[in-house]
Description:
Layout (H helix, E strand, L loop, with lengths): L10 E2 L4 E9 L4 E9 L2 E10 L4 H15 L10 E7 L5 E7 L4 E2 H5 L9 H20 L2 E2 L8 E5 L2 E4 L6 E2 L7 E2 L13 H6 L1 E2 L1 H16 L11 H9 L12 H10 L10 H16 L1
Parallel strand pairs: 1-5
Antiparallel strand pairs: 2-3, 3-4, 4-6, 5-6, 7-9, 8-11, 9-10, 12-13
Helix pairs in contact: 3-5, 3-8, 5-7
The site of adenosine-5'-diphosphate has 19 residues, from strand 2 and strand 7.
Amino acid sequence: SDKSSLAPDLYITTDKxxxxxxxxxxxxxxxxxxxxxxxxxxxxxxVKNLTGSDIETNKNDLLKEAKLMQQFxxxxxxxxxxxxxAMESSGSLMLVMExxxxxxxxxxxSQHNEKSFPEERLLVLMNxxxxxxxxxxxxxxxxxxxxxxxxLLVTENFAKISDFGMSRIFxxxxxxxxxxxxxxxxxxxxxxxxxxxxxxxxxxxxxxxxVTLWEVxxxxxxxxxxxxxxxILAMLEGGKRxxxxxxxxxxxxxxxxxCWAYDPEDRPTFNDLLLQFKVFxxxxxx
Length: 286
Ligand code: ADP
Protein backbone atom coordinates (compact mmCIF):
# COMPACT_ATOMS: atom_id res chain seq x y z
CA SER A 1 0.00 0.00 0.00
CA ASP A 2 0.91 3.68 -0.09
CA LYS A 3 1.62 3.67 3.60
CA SER A 4 4.22 0.91 3.42
CA SER A 5 6.79 2.98 1.55
CA LEU A 6 6.64 5.83 4.05
CA ALA A 7 9.22 5.47 6.81
CA PRO A 8 7.33 4.01 9.81
CA ASP A 9 9.14 6.32 12.22
CA LEU A 10 7.54 9.30 10.50
CA TYR A 11 4.17 8.35 11.93
CA ILE A 12 3.20 10.10 15.14
CA THR A 13 0.11 9.89 17.30
CA THR A 14 -2.18 12.88 17.92
CA ASP A 15 -0.88 13.36 21.47
CA LYS A 16 2.46 14.46 19.97
CA UNK A 17 0.82 17.29 18.10
CA UNK A 18 -0.52 20.61 19.35
CA UNK A 19 -2.42 22.54 16.71
CA UNK A 20 -3.04 26.29 16.95
CA UNK A 21 -4.42 28.77 14.42
CA UNK A 22 -4.51 28.91 10.60
CA UNK A 23 -1.48 30.22 8.69
CA UNK A 24 -2.49 29.51 5.14
CA UNK A 25 -5.09 28.21 2.80
CA UNK A 26 -4.08 25.09 0.88
CA UNK A 27 -5.48 23.15 -1.99
CA UNK A 28 -6.85 20.37 0.25
CA UNK A 29 -7.67 22.39 3.34
CA UNK A 30 -6.22 24.77 5.88
CA UNK A 31 -2.55 24.88 6.81
CA UNK A 32 -2.19 25.42 10.54
CA UNK A 33 0.62 26.37 12.87
CA UNK A 34 1.45 24.21 15.85
CA UNK A 35 4.03 22.26 17.76
CA UNK A 36 5.14 18.71 17.26
CA UNK A 37 6.97 16.48 19.75
CA UNK A 38 10.11 15.11 18.17
CA UNK A 39 12.72 13.20 20.17
CA UNK A 40 11.20 14.38 23.41
CA UNK A 41 10.75 18.08 22.78
CA UNK A 42 8.16 20.24 21.06
CA UNK A 43 9.26 22.12 17.95
CA UNK A 44 7.26 24.67 15.91
CA UNK A 45 5.61 23.17 12.84
CA UNK A 46 3.16 23.75 10.01
CA VAL A 47 0.38 21.20 9.62
CA LYS A 48 -1.25 20.50 6.28
CA ASN A 49 -4.58 19.01 7.16
CA LEU A 50 -6.85 16.82 5.14
CA THR A 51 -10.49 17.03 6.12
CA GLY A 52 -13.89 17.33 4.51
CA SER A 53 -15.09 15.79 1.27
CA ASP A 54 -13.09 13.74 -1.24
CA ILE A 55 -10.92 12.39 1.58
CA GLU A 56 -10.05 9.14 -0.16
CA THR A 57 -8.72 10.67 -3.42
CA ASN A 58 -6.91 13.48 -1.63
CA LYS A 59 -5.45 11.10 0.94
CA ASN A 60 -3.43 9.36 -1.75
CA ASP A 61 -2.20 12.69 -3.09
CA LEU A 62 -1.13 13.85 0.34
CA LEU A 63 0.66 10.54 1.01
CA LYS A 64 2.43 10.85 -2.35
CA GLU A 65 3.56 14.35 -1.38
CA ALA A 66 4.87 13.01 1.94
CA LYS A 67 6.70 10.15 0.23
CA LEU A 68 8.55 12.57 -2.02
CA MET A 69 9.34 14.99 0.80
CA GLN A 70 10.79 12.28 3.05
CA GLN A 71 13.56 11.74 0.46
CA PHE A 72 14.82 15.30 0.71
CA UNK A 73 17.55 16.52 2.99
CA UNK A 74 18.47 20.05 2.00
CA UNK A 75 18.62 23.42 3.82
CA UNK A 76 16.55 25.19 1.16
CA UNK A 77 13.75 22.65 0.98
CA UNK A 78 10.97 22.50 3.57
CA UNK A 79 11.42 19.40 5.70
CA UNK A 80 8.76 16.85 6.45
CA UNK A 81 8.80 16.25 10.21
CA UNK A 82 6.01 13.72 10.63
CA UNK A 83 2.74 12.26 9.45
CA UNK A 84 -0.21 12.04 11.76
CA UNK A 85 -2.88 9.63 10.63
CA ALA A 86 -5.98 10.21 12.71
CA MET A 87 -8.39 8.86 10.08
CA GLU A 88 -9.88 6.42 12.60
CA SER A 89 -10.49 8.92 15.40
CA SER A 90 -10.91 12.45 14.04
CA GLY A 91 -11.09 11.52 10.35
CA SER A 92 -8.04 13.52 9.33
CA LEU A 93 -4.60 12.98 7.88
CA MET A 94 -1.92 15.52 8.67
CA LEU A 95 1.39 16.30 7.05
CA VAL A 96 3.65 17.94 9.63
CA MET A 97 6.39 20.18 8.22
CA GLU A 98 9.01 22.46 9.64
CA UNK A 99 7.62 25.96 10.09
CA UNK A 100 8.64 28.87 7.89
CA UNK A 101 7.34 31.61 10.20
CA UNK A 102 7.46 34.50 7.69
CA UNK A 103 5.17 32.78 5.19
CA UNK A 104 5.33 33.04 1.42
CA UNK A 105 7.93 35.11 -0.42
CA UNK A 106 5.22 36.52 -2.68
CA UNK A 107 3.21 37.92 0.23
CA UNK A 108 6.35 39.16 1.95
CA UNK A 109 7.61 41.01 -1.15
CA SER A 110 4.27 42.59 -1.95
CA GLN A 111 4.79 44.56 1.27
CA HIS A 112 8.26 45.72 0.24
CA ASN A 113 10.04 47.74 -2.47
CA GLU A 114 13.58 48.47 -3.76
CA LYS A 115 14.24 50.69 -0.75
CA SER A 116 12.99 48.45 2.04
CA PHE A 117 14.27 45.18 0.51
CA PRO A 118 16.95 45.90 -2.12
CA GLU A 119 18.13 43.79 -5.05
CA GLU A 120 21.10 42.21 -3.25
CA ARG A 121 18.78 40.71 -0.66
CA LEU A 122 16.54 39.31 -3.40
CA LEU A 123 19.63 37.73 -4.96
CA VAL A 124 20.61 36.04 -1.71
CA LEU A 125 17.17 34.41 -1.48
CA MET A 126 17.03 33.38 -5.14
CA ASN A 127 20.52 31.91 -4.91
CA UNK A 128 19.16 29.67 -2.14
CA UNK A 129 16.14 28.69 -4.25
CA UNK A 130 18.49 27.91 -7.14
CA UNK A 131 20.57 25.72 -4.82
CA UNK A 132 17.45 23.83 -3.71
CA UNK A 133 16.32 23.40 -7.32
CA UNK A 134 19.77 22.10 -8.34
CA UNK A 135 19.36 19.48 -5.60
CA UNK A 136 15.92 18.45 -6.87
CA UNK A 137 17.03 18.25 -10.50
CA UNK A 138 19.95 16.06 -9.37
CA UNK A 139 17.35 13.70 -7.94
CA UNK A 140 15.37 13.66 -11.22
CA UNK A 141 12.45 15.47 -9.68
CA UNK A 142 10.30 18.07 -11.36
CA UNK A 143 8.57 20.33 -8.84
CA UNK A 144 6.04 21.61 -11.40
CA UNK A 145 4.76 24.41 -9.19
CA UNK A 146 7.80 26.60 -8.64
CA UNK A 147 6.51 30.14 -8.09
CA UNK A 148 7.04 32.91 -5.52
CA UNK A 149 3.92 31.75 -3.65
CA UNK A 150 5.59 28.39 -3.01
CA UNK A 151 8.82 29.79 -1.64
CA LEU A 152 8.57 30.24 2.11
CA LEU A 153 10.70 32.34 4.42
CA VAL A 154 12.25 31.09 7.64
CA THR A 155 13.81 34.54 8.11
CA GLU A 156 14.21 37.52 5.77
CA ASN A 157 17.45 35.93 4.56
CA PHE A 158 16.51 32.26 4.50
CA ALA A 159 14.20 30.78 1.87
CA LYS A 160 12.82 27.29 1.40
CA ILE A 161 11.04 25.60 -1.49
CA SER A 162 7.68 24.14 -0.50
CA ASP A 163 4.51 22.54 -1.86
CA PHE A 164 5.39 19.26 -3.53
CA GLY A 165 1.76 18.49 -4.35
CA MET A 166 2.41 18.49 -8.11
CA SER A 167 5.95 17.13 -8.06
CA ARG A 168 6.95 14.01 -9.95
CA ILE A 169 10.02 11.84 -10.20
CA PHE A 170 11.15 10.82 -13.68
CA UNK A 171 13.42 8.08 -14.99
CA UNK A 172 17.04 8.99 -15.68
CA UNK A 173 16.73 7.32 -19.10
CA UNK A 174 13.62 9.32 -20.07
CA UNK A 175 14.92 12.63 -18.79
CA UNK A 176 11.37 13.97 -18.51
CA UNK A 177 7.95 13.44 -16.96
CA UNK A 178 5.03 13.26 -19.37
CA UNK A 179 1.68 14.35 -17.96
CA UNK A 180 -1.28 12.52 -19.48
CA UNK A 181 -3.51 15.57 -19.64
CA UNK A 182 -3.46 19.16 -18.45
CA UNK A 183 -5.11 19.77 -15.08
CA UNK A 184 -5.34 22.93 -13.05
CA UNK A 185 -1.85 23.98 -14.01
CA UNK A 186 0.05 27.16 -13.18
CA UNK A 187 0.33 27.95 -16.93
CA UNK A 188 2.06 31.32 -16.46
CA UNK A 189 5.07 29.54 -14.97
CA UNK A 190 5.28 26.78 -17.57
CA UNK A 191 7.71 26.41 -20.46
CA UNK A 192 6.31 26.11 -24.01
CA UNK A 193 7.03 22.35 -24.25
CA UNK A 194 5.05 21.79 -21.03
CA UNK A 195 2.13 23.83 -22.38
CA UNK A 196 2.22 22.18 -25.81
CA UNK A 197 3.34 18.60 -25.16
CA UNK A 198 2.84 18.19 -21.37
CA UNK A 199 6.54 17.46 -21.13
CA UNK A 200 8.28 18.35 -17.86
CA UNK A 201 12.07 18.42 -17.58
CA UNK A 202 14.66 20.17 -15.44
CA UNK A 203 15.07 22.59 -18.36
CA UNK A 204 11.39 23.40 -18.01
CA UNK A 205 11.93 23.97 -14.29
CA UNK A 206 14.57 26.54 -15.24
CA UNK A 207 11.91 28.40 -17.24
CA UNK A 208 9.68 28.48 -14.13
CA UNK A 209 12.66 29.66 -12.09
CA UNK A 210 13.02 32.56 -14.55
CA VAL A 211 9.36 33.49 -14.10
CA THR A 212 9.83 33.27 -10.33
CA LEU A 213 12.88 35.56 -10.60
CA TRP A 214 10.69 38.01 -12.53
CA GLU A 215 7.99 37.86 -9.80
CA VAL A 216 10.57 38.42 -7.09
CA UNK A 217 12.24 41.36 -8.83
CA UNK A 218 8.76 42.79 -9.47
CA UNK A 219 7.97 42.54 -5.73
CA UNK A 220 5.13 40.09 -6.16
CA UNK A 221 3.51 41.25 -9.43
CA UNK A 222 1.52 38.77 -11.48
CA UNK A 223 3.37 37.61 -14.61
CA UNK A 224 1.64 38.35 -17.96
CA UNK A 225 -1.06 40.25 -16.07
CA UNK A 226 -4.16 40.73 -18.22
CA UNK A 227 -3.28 37.91 -20.63
CA UNK A 228 -4.97 34.52 -20.90
CA UNK A 229 -3.12 31.19 -21.23
CA UNK A 230 -3.52 31.01 -25.01
CA UNK A 231 -2.39 34.62 -25.44
CA ILE A 232 0.71 33.94 -23.36
CA LEU A 233 1.71 31.00 -25.56
CA ALA A 234 1.18 33.10 -28.71
CA MET A 235 3.34 35.85 -27.24
CA LEU A 236 6.13 33.39 -26.39
CA GLU A 237 5.98 31.77 -29.81
CA GLY A 238 6.23 35.25 -31.33
CA GLY A 239 9.54 35.64 -29.50
CA LYS A 240 8.28 38.14 -26.93
CA ARG A 241 9.08 37.79 -23.22
CA UNK A 242 8.15 39.44 -19.92
CA UNK A 243 9.73 42.87 -19.68
CA UNK A 244 12.57 43.78 -17.37
CA UNK A 245 11.04 44.63 -13.97
CA UNK A 246 11.40 48.27 -13.00
CA UNK A 247 14.72 48.83 -11.23
CA UNK A 248 16.02 45.32 -11.94
CA UNK A 249 19.66 45.31 -13.08
CA UNK A 250 20.41 44.23 -16.67
CA UNK A 251 22.55 41.34 -15.42
CA UNK A 252 19.63 39.79 -13.57
CA UNK A 253 17.30 40.32 -16.53
CA UNK A 254 19.86 38.56 -18.74
CA UNK A 255 19.54 35.50 -16.49
CA UNK A 256 15.75 35.59 -16.92
CA UNK A 257 16.10 35.76 -20.71
CA UNK A 258 18.48 32.76 -20.66
CA CYS A 259 15.88 30.80 -18.69
CA TRP A 260 13.28 31.68 -21.33
CA ALA A 261 15.13 30.35 -24.37
CA TYR A 262 12.47 28.68 -26.54
CA ASP A 263 14.60 25.60 -27.14
CA PRO A 264 15.09 23.80 -23.78
CA GLU A 265 18.64 22.85 -24.80
CA ASP A 266 19.58 26.53 -24.98
CA ARG A 267 18.61 27.16 -21.33
CA PRO A 268 21.15 27.03 -18.51
CA THR A 269 21.11 24.35 -15.81
CA PHE A 270 20.58 25.21 -12.14
CA ASN A 271 24.27 24.54 -11.57
CA ASP A 272 25.15 27.04 -14.34
CA LEU A 273 22.94 29.61 -12.61
CA LEU A 274 24.52 28.94 -9.22
CA LEU A 275 27.86 30.05 -10.65
CA GLN A 276 26.30 33.20 -12.08
CA PHE A 277 24.67 34.02 -8.75
CA LYS A 278 27.98 33.53 -6.98
CA VAL A 279 29.55 36.21 -9.16
CA PHE A 280 26.61 38.57 -8.61
CA UNK A 281 26.60 38.12 -4.89
CA UNK A 282 30.35 38.72 -4.61
CA UNK A 283 30.23 41.88 -6.71
CA UNK A 284 26.85 43.29 -5.79
CA UNK A 285 26.57 42.52 -2.10
CA UNK A 286 30.11 43.18 -0.93
P1 ADP B 1 -1.38 23.61 -1.35
O1 ADP B 1 -0.40 22.70 -2.00
O2 ADP B 1 -2.57 22.87 -0.86
O3 ADP B 1 -1.69 24.83 -2.16
P2 ADP B 1 0.66 24.84 0.25
O4 ADP B 1 1.65 23.80 0.61
O5 ADP B 1 1.01 25.75 -0.87
O6 ADP B 1 -0.74 24.15 0.01
O7 ADP B 1 0.32 25.72 1.53
C1 ADP B 1 -0.63 26.76 1.50
C2 ADP B 1 -0.17 27.95 2.32
O8 ADP B 1 0.09 27.56 3.68
C3 ADP B 1 1.15 28.54 1.84
O9 ADP B 1 0.95 29.52 0.87
C4 ADP B 1 1.72 29.16 3.12
O10 ADP B 1 1.16 30.43 3.34
C5 ADP B 1 1.24 28.21 4.20
N1 ADP B 1 2.29 27.21 4.51
C6 ADP B 1 2.45 25.99 3.93
N2 ADP B 1 3.49 25.34 4.44
C7 ADP B 1 4.05 26.15 5.37
C8 ADP B 1 5.20 26.04 6.25
N3 ADP B 1 5.97 24.96 6.27
N4 ADP B 1 5.47 27.09 7.06
C9 ADP B 1 4.69 28.19 7.02
N5 ADP B 1 3.62 28.35 6.22
C10 ADP B 1 3.28 27.36 5.41
